[in-house]
Design brief:
The protein is of the alpha/beta class. It is built from 6 helices and 7 strands; from the N terminus they run βαβαββαββαβαα. The structure holds thymidine-5'-triphosphate.
């Protein structure tokens, strides 16, 4: 019998909040995994691979609990956009996304009773045409830097978005409703 505690193998504050808002008791245990991946893999394979890697890193220290990990990437015309390292990179990503539809993939891994299973969700996001001034102003918010694709839909970045198709929470970094369903199916008891 596993402990009814969920270990979140992620340092993302968004993922933490999404779970806490549902009163799910969580403990954070993120470890610094190498997030490099084989670029020839499909985006859904990459996010599930990295989510699994995050979970497995924590599992080596705790085999008694449920462990949840996730990974998010943005994909534009077959090219993966991760987190920008510099202001220039962020500016470039935002100009690339301007006026176009990109896909956000979030992969989720759940470890329960020594078995790690994964799934992913994809949401398509259409950006408005952005002016240089809009991009400049958005960069000044500081928001783009810890986020895949250099924007946060849950923050000021919401004003860049014209339309979405799919689960909003996939874009934020954790498709919460499917995650809850998968956790329940594995025997995790939810507070609701
Ligand atoms: C597109 C988009 C991404 N993001 C975030 C979600 C993820 O936290 C981040 C992608 O990086 P990830 O590597 O998925 O996650 P992380 O580095 O924040 O945390 P950890 O590796 O410890 O699990 O981008 C938003 O918050 N809003 C958005 O609109």
């Amino acid at each position: 019998m596993l402990k009814q505690t969920l270990i979140l193998a992620s340092s993302s504050p968004r993922r933490k909040e999404l779970l806490e808002e549902l009163q799910i008791p969580i403990v954070i245990s993120s470890s610094n995994v190498d997030e490099s991946f084989d670029p020839t893999l499909a985006p859904e394979e990459i996010v599930m691979y990295l989510a699994r890697k995050k979970v497995e890193a924590v599992y080596s220290n705790d085999k008694e609990s449920f462990i949840l990990g996730a990974d998010t990437v943005v994909c534009l015309d077959g090219v993966i956009l991760g987190k920008p390292r510099t202001r220039e990179e962020a500016s470039q990503m935002l100009s690339q996304l301007s006026g176009k539809t990109h896909s956000v993939y979030t992969g989720v891994a759940i470890m329960a009773n020594g078995i790690c299973s994964t799934f992913y969700e994809k949401t398509d996001v259409l950006f408005w045409e952005l002016t240089d001034e809009e991009i400049h102003d958005y960069l000044n918010t500081g928001e783009p830097f810890d986020k895949a694709g250099a924007y946060g839909i849950q923050g000021v970045g919401r004003i860049l978005v014209k339309e979405i198709k799919g689960d909003y929470f996939t874009v934020v970094g954790l498709p919460i409703s499917r995650t809850v369903r998968e956790l329940k199916a594995k025997g995790f008891s939810m507070p609701h």
